[in-house]
Amino acid sequence: MNLKKLFFLLTILITLSCDAEKFTTANGEVHEVSSLIGMDVFDIAYGYSEVSPETLNGTNNQKWVVYYKDIDVTLVTNKSTNIVQSASKGKNPE
User: Fold this and answer.
1) Is residue 6 part of a domain?
2) What is the pTM of this model?
3) Beta carbons within 8 Å of 87's beta carbon, 6+ residues apart
4) Which one, out of 20, 42, 54, 90, has a CA that is 20 to 30 A from the CA of 13?
5) Structural domain boundaries, residue 81
6) Is residue 79 part of a domain?
């Protein structure tokens, strides 16, 4: 009986931890953070945010690590293409 309860509890916890991270744009739209991967960082800046990005530690000659405070998202972009390579919720310097 206790094993069934433990299994059920673990299933719920795993399901909750797998939920996609979401963010809300400056105009109130909700999107998954993962949907930003592959986009041009400047399209995100002009389409989703209303603040200037903050450059974070981890930025170098190849990548730009940037945080948008109003949408609470950190992006890692390829400097030569401006394409987002990874995106995460919150302020996450490399």
Assistant:
1) no
2) 0.77
3) 33, 34, 36, 37, 73, 74, 75, 76
4) 90
5) 21-89
6) yes
Is 94 part of any domain?
A: no
Give me the residue label for tokens 């903050």.
54
What is the rounded distance in angstroms from the CA atom of residue 14 to the CA atom of residue 76?
Answer: 27
Structure tokens, 24: 């809300």
55 lies in a domain? yes
Task: Give φ, ψ of 16 to 5 degrees.
Answer: -65, -35
Structural domains in the chain (count): 1
Nearest to residue 78, comparing CAs of 65, 92, 91, 93? 65
Residues 40, 87 contacting (CB under 8 angstroms): no
